[in-house]
Amino acid sequence: MFATGTTAAFTITVATVTVTPNSAQSKVYGAVDPGLTFTNDAGLSPADFSGSLARATGENVGTYAINLGTLSAGSNYTTVLDATPVTFGITPATLAVNAVANSKVFGTLDPPSRPRSRASSSATTPPTPASPAARAAAGPRARPSSGPPTRSPAPRAP
């Protein structure tokens, strides 16, 4: 007990708050990372924190350790990450391929690789370019008929 008029010195130390990242956080390959969520043992609300958790660098399919990043509960707390590691997962994206059943005879032009839409205008769709193999099989290119063919001069004898 203190008598009236006496003083005492008190030391207020910072409290430690342990942050535990929520498990099963993930994204699909190619998507933007979601904000990483967590719980804490001090009963603080997420609004009491500034910054955010982070994860190990990488964008390939796999798992990445979640770390404290820039997360802070302010100057009254020492913010630490729970000792049990939690990972963030990147899962494979679904690739949809719509193949068109088609065929061709060797040496002929390739058929269109995708259906062509018909526009309501009078414009025509240019032909599909031939593959290198089809062009080679077709022989030399036809020349425009706008004049006589030009020939390279023959080498002259010395």
Please give a structural write-up.
There is one protein chain. With 158 residues, the chain is mainly β. The protein is built from 1 helix and 7 strands, in the order βββββββα. The protein has a domain of 77 residues: Ribosomal Protein L9, domain 2. It is elongated, with a radius of gyration of 36 Å. About 7% of the residues have low confidence.
Short key terms for the protein model shown above:
158 residues; mainly beta; Ribosomal Protein L9, domain 2; four-stranded mixed β-sheet; three-stranded mixed β-sheet; 1 helix; 7 strands
Largest sheet: 4 strands, mixed
Question: Under the CATH scheme, which class of the domain at 15-91?
Answer: Alpha Beta
Q: What name does the CATH topology of the domain at 15-91 carry?
A: Ribosomal Protein L9, domain 2
Number of helical regions: 1
What is the helix fraction of residues, given as a range? under 10%
Overall 3D geometry?
elongated
Counted beta strands? 7
Mean pLDDT: 82
Distance between the termini: 125 Å
